[in-house]
Amino acid sequence: MKLLRIRLAAATCTALLFVLVSSMTAPAQEPAGDKVDLQALSEIKSEAFQHSHVMENLYYLSEVYGPRITNSRNHHAAAEWAMQQMKAWGLQNVHLEKWGPFGYGWQIKKFYGALDTPAYAALIGFPLAWTPGTNGPVTADAVLAPLHSKDDFAKYKGKLKGKIVLIFDPRELSLHTTPDAHRLTDEEIQARINGGPGGPGGGRPPAAAPQPGQYTPSSLSTAAPSGRILRNEVNTFLKEEGVLVALTPGYNGDGGTIFASYGGSQDPKDPVGPPMAAITPEQYNRICRLLQHGTAPKLTFDIQTEYQKDDLMGFNVIGEIPGTTKPDEVVMVGGHFDSWQGGTGATDNGTGSSVALEAVRILATLHKPMARTVRVALWGGEEEGLYGSIAYVQQHFAPRDTMKKTPEYDKLDAYFNDDGGSGRFRGVSATSPEMVAIFKSWIEPIKDQHIVAVSGGGAFRPTAQPGGTDSTSFSWIGLNGIGFQQDGLEYGTRTHHSNMDLYDRVQKDDVEQGSMIEAWFAYNAATRADMLPRIPTPEPLTK
Ligand SMILES: [Zn+2]
Description:
Blueprint: H1 2-25, H2 38-50, H3 54-64, H4 73-88, E1 92-99, E2 105-117, E3 121-122, E4 125-127, E5 138-144, H5 153-156, E6 164-166, H6 186-193, H7 217-221, H8 225-240, E7 245-248, E8 276-279, H9 281-292, E9 298-308, E10 314-321, E11 326-336, H10 346-366, E12 372-379, H11 387-396, E13 412-417, E14 425-429, H12 433-443, E15 453-455, H13 471-476, E16 481-486, H14 491-495, H15 508-527
């Protein structure tokens, strides 16, 4: 740490000296950065703000085809729709790129849940992903059997057969005394850029780190390998015990909002447990209180889910605007196309997908010559572990273990990612000091659009492990994977992996702003004289 500071200080001194010397010998140097094309900017803005398709894109991706669980029928149908749009806008080389195998697709066909006695109440909830249905309506006694770790299995052995089991403790709920959403001030976005909370994903709260072996609603939901181990243990136990339906209160949310995702597994080799559903914590707690009072609640569930088993390969959706003079050099924009199942995947990541589609539509519609190819990529399998982008970067550019570069490696200029929900773009993360200067010159004429910050001054190096979102798959192999910092809005409080991830939670002005900025960034990258500077290439892991 200390060493780094000394080095940085030395670098700053050298730079200062250089500036002093050069200012004595030559006229003042122009600040580093690009001269931007303001005419192009005004055309991009007018297309983005007067003729926007972004909410129409979002309508189809969320209202018609949502939710889009990886490999589900909806996900495939949404991809077909996106390819049709790309072709209609004049994009070339529009296709699906397969990777994998990923595993089964999965989709909800029916969910009914109710408290029958002591009084009827319809339950708000949804099935956990990759869990089976009930095979018709089932009614049974509820049992509270909170599982905190494997050690609890013995306690409940032989007691859960034919029961509807609440597998976690009741959730403690507190009064909301802070707003669900707020817009970052310029000072807050600057602080965040300088190492404050919130990475390229914007307002996303840091994922709760589950303790190894500890069972909680959030550790059951995590896509990390620890989550898979836990789900397999829990599902095997519940299945062996003959549990009819397992219930959870979700890992976050209240007031009708439930955050939950995984329950089973897309991998055909993993055990399949009983039907599982998340219900609102207030209703979950009510059932717990009835049990604690000895009131013997009875519940009914009728759940149908569908596993899509015919094609286990995952896919990404790709389309291009070919470059005019350097078509083999490529600027990419995109985001993940898949979602979780509770809502329609409107903000995660219908918005990032709609914005990327709108950015390329704007550029295709303007017909302004761009030297480099602009390619849009809509990734699959992000939610389960960034599978689509990890496969793509290794197929196209370099396998991470050998780092044997393909000819495409040196031609990938940058990838711009949007996966931070509905909030407008407030900052952008640069990956080298030169890039900071370049991005500052790109945002200078659009500061009235509330994008005010460029990250910089940190250690610019490849990402050790991809995580969080798809831009990290690029930086993992030494490519420019660039994210925008966004206003978090309700991403963490209401929409991220919840049943309320719906169209109405998307702010139209925000996604129009994002589309304009993404188009502007792609245009600048595709038309500037040189490719953007690079982070260092990481060492191979194997020789
Ligand atoms: Zn996402």
